[in-house]
Specification:
It contains eight helices and seven strands. It has 283 residues and is an alpha/beta fold.
Length: 283
């Protein structure tokens, strides 16, 4: 559609107004972060409201129509919302970590929704006590490592490019699970020795380059590795980086875990089988 597309329904106008409002609120909140928990309550409530918005099935048809018709600057609006809400998700985790370390315990809808997603995200390939799990994008409040280590006994290593997040995450783990087999590192996956031992890899849905990293991981990981790629398509793409095509010579999609009412879905990948006659060697 051209830039002359005209919005014709009240539902489309209302959704566009809501999206622009969310973008303004997220941008302002992200720019106000000063390393403290100032504004934490308001931002976490905003995140909870937004999580409800992107998981409300009644919005899906209107969003799909807008995506199809592409009114002026709609693609830029979606990209901006995804980027700014991801920034605010990271800041919300920092707020929660800072509050916990200050003796406060909080939980609003956003964290409850994320935590509920963890339980079944690995579908038919769950980790066991013998598993080694790599989490890419562990954040400041490492819910997934704490949950998986406590429920399965698996060894967990999380990596994040945000040094502040790693520092806060280590303090949170020390406070909530210092006895658990969890390590958090501020380094890239290709520099991490643990990468080659991982039986499972989990990608945060708010890592923008996660499919580039998946391609990078192919020669570095075990042949039997299972990769859980958190993603959001359609309406959920307002809050998550969506699923992408993968190189069929490297990876194959083995399962898609759809979670209606939850902020992200999960795509499970395994390495593609080698062509007949290809010995492969070490990967």
């Amino acid at each position: 559609m051209s830039d002359t597309t005209i919005i014709t329904t009240d539902e489309q106008r209302e959704m566009l107004s809501s999206l622009h409002n969310y973008l303004q609120l997220f941008t302002a909140s992200a720019n106000q972060y000063d390393g403290s928990a100032a504004g934490a309550v308001e931002l976490e409530q905003l995140m909870a409201d937004y999580a409800n918005f992107v998981t409300d099935a009644s919005h899906e048809e209107t969003f799909d129509t807008l995506k199809l018709e592409q009114p002026p600057a709609f693609a830029e609006l979606v990209t901006g919302l995804r980027d700014q809400s991801a920034r605010c998700a990271a800041i919300t985790e920092k707020h929660r970590a800072l509050q916990l370390l200050d003796g406060q315990v909080t939980s609003v809808g956003y964290f409850d929704n994320v935590e509920a997603c963890i339980e079944q995200e690995l579908g038919s390939c769950p980790p066991t006590v013998d598993s080694k799990v790599l989490l890419v994008g562990s954040g400041s409040f490492p819910m997934t490592p704490l949950h998986l280590a406590r429920s399965t006994g698996a060894r967990i290593v999380g990596v994040d490019i945000d040094a502040e997040a790693v520092d806060l995450g280590r303090h949170v783990v020390h406070l909530l699970g210092k006895e658990l087999p969890i390590t958090l590192e501020h380094m890239s996956v290709d520099d991490l020795p643990f990468t080659g031992d991982a039986t499972h890899v989990i990608f945060s849905s708010t890592v923008p380059v996660k499919y580039d990293l998946l391609d990078l991981l192919y020669p570095l990981t075990r042949d039997d590795v299972v990769v859980a790629m958190r993603f959001g398509d359609g309406l959920k793409s307002l809050f998550n980086y969506p699923m992408q095509e993968v190189d069929p010579k490297k990876w194959r999609l083995i399962e898609t875990v759809r979670r209606p009412g939850h902020v992200f879905d999960v795509a499970l990948y395994a390495k593609a089988p080698l062509p007949p006659g290809d010995g492969g060697g070490d990967r």
